[in-house]
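Team,

Forwarding the record for the chain on the shared tracking sheet. I've put the sequence and predicted structure together so nobody has to dig through attachments.
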Amino acid sequence: MAVEQVHDPEACKGVDIGITRVFQVLGKRWNGPILSVLMDRPTHFASLRRAIPGISERMLSDRLAELATAGLVVREVDEGPPLRVSYRLTAAGAALEPSLTTLGEWAREHLPDSPC
C-alpha cells in the first residue's frame, strides 16, 4: 500500500537563480584560474597556458570560448608577424574581481590544504 506524500512548497525553497547561473560558468573546472590570470592583464594564449599547470591547449581553447560566449572574455588577434591571440576580461569579467578575490581569501582560511 502506497503512502501519499504531501508536498510543502515552502519546505523546498528553490536555489537562487543568480547563484545557479554563476556556478554554471564558474563551477566548471579551469574557468576560475583562467579568470584569475586575466585579472592581472590581457594575456596571450601561450602565456595563459603556461600560467595554468595541467590545462591542455584544447581545454583552454574550449573554456576561453565558453567564457567569451558568457560575455566575460574577449579574444583579440594581434596582427603579426607573428600572429598572436590574446585574451582580456570584458567589463563584466573585470567586475568579478572583488568576488573572486574574496572567494580566494575564504578558501585560504577555511579549506584544508590539498595538492593542486
